[in-house]
């Protein structure tokens, strides 16, 4: 019973922090107090302060928006392009499908995070370029899964009936096939979010993400790594939040996929 509402509750807290974080922080996340630098957790600063005397809890809350917005954009971009490509390739089939999948396989062989590190480091595009790279290189894996789901559906009776009555391919794709592959799309969306969350945090840790001084979970890991002896909470807190959010979204994705798939099977039998 507890697990049913615990994950949505925790995710809701993250969403609220991302939207209204600047109004929820106990201190100005950018305010420096060098006299209080590297302080351990206390009643005044629940997670202590960093090396510039900034309140860690305030920066953790304020950094939610930066940490979550990028992964959401990556997940949306990947979902849109991968769904369109997977639907089209799976439904059309033939040489068109083969040509598309050869390109997909070629891009799929490229490691997204490594390419993002190299391109952002060389071109200096920062956070926006990292998001674009992760979108482009994240499409192939999801497109393959959507295509597989379409291949399992395209010869079923409801698709054949739609063709028989003369429905246009676009309507068959988006009005009939898409709802039946939606569980795969939603699960892919959530898993892509998790991958982008970890990937962008890694880029920020390497100094290739958000700008210096901006509150961000990955950036906090890099900024506070020298405080392990005096205030380990300054680094443990963002690491724990990244891990927790990734785990919650992954579990939620599994649950949503199972429920949507079961509902689709029930509709199909009725």
Automatic annotation (TrEMBL):
It is a multi-pass membrane protein. It is found in: Cell membrane. The keyword Nuclease does not apply. Keywords: Cell membrane, Membrane, Transmembrane, Transmembrane helix, Transport. Coiled coil: none annotated. GO terms for biological process: transmembrane transport. GO terms for cellular component: plasma membrane. Its main location: membrane. The chain crosses the membrane at residues 6-24, 68-93, 113-137, 185-210, 230-253. SUPFAM superfamilies: MetI-like (SSF161098). Residues 68-253 form the ABC transmembrane type-1 domain. PROSITE patterns: ABC_TM1. PANTHER family: D,D-DIPEPTIDE TRANSPORT SYSTEM PERMEASE PROTEIN DDPC-RELATED, OLIGOPEPTIDE TRANSPORT SYSTEM PERMEASE PROTEIN APPC. Belongs to the binding-protein-dependent transport system permease family. This is Peptide/nickel transport system permease protein.
């Amino acid at each position: 019973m507890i697990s049913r509402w615990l994950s949505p509750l925790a995710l809701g807290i993250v969403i609220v922090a991302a939207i209204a974080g600047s109004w929820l922080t106990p201190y100005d996340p950018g305010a420096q107090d060098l006299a209080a630098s590297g302080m351990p957790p206390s009643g005044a600063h629940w997670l202590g302060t960093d090396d510039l005397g900034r309140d860690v809890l305030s920066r953790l809350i304020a950094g939610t928006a930066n940490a979550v917005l990028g992964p959401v954009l990556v997940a949306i971009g990947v979902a849109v392009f991968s769904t369109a490509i997977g639907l089209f390739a799976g439904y059309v089939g033939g040489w068109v499908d083969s040509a598309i999948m050869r390109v997909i396989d070629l891009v799929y062989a490229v490691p997204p995070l490594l390419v993002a590190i190299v391109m952002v480091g060389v071109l200096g595009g920062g956070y926006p370029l990292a998001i674009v790279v992760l979108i482009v290189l994240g499409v192939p894996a999801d497109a393959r899964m959507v295509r597989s789901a379409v291949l399992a559906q395209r010869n079923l009776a409801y698709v054949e009936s739609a063709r028989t009555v003369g429905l246009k391919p676009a309507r068959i794709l988006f009005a009939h096939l898409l709802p039946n592959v939606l569980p795969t799309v939603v699960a892919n969306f959530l898993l892509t979010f998790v991958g982008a969350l970890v990937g962008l945090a890694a880029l920020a840790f390497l100094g290739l993400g958000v700008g210096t001084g901006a509150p961000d979970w990955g950036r906090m890991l890099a900024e506070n790594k020298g405080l392990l002896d005096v205030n380990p909470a300054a680094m443990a807190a963002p690491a724990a939040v990244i891990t927790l959010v990734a785990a919650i979204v992954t579990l939620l994705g599994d649950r949503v996929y199972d429920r949507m798939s079961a509902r689709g099977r029930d509709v199909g039998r009725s």
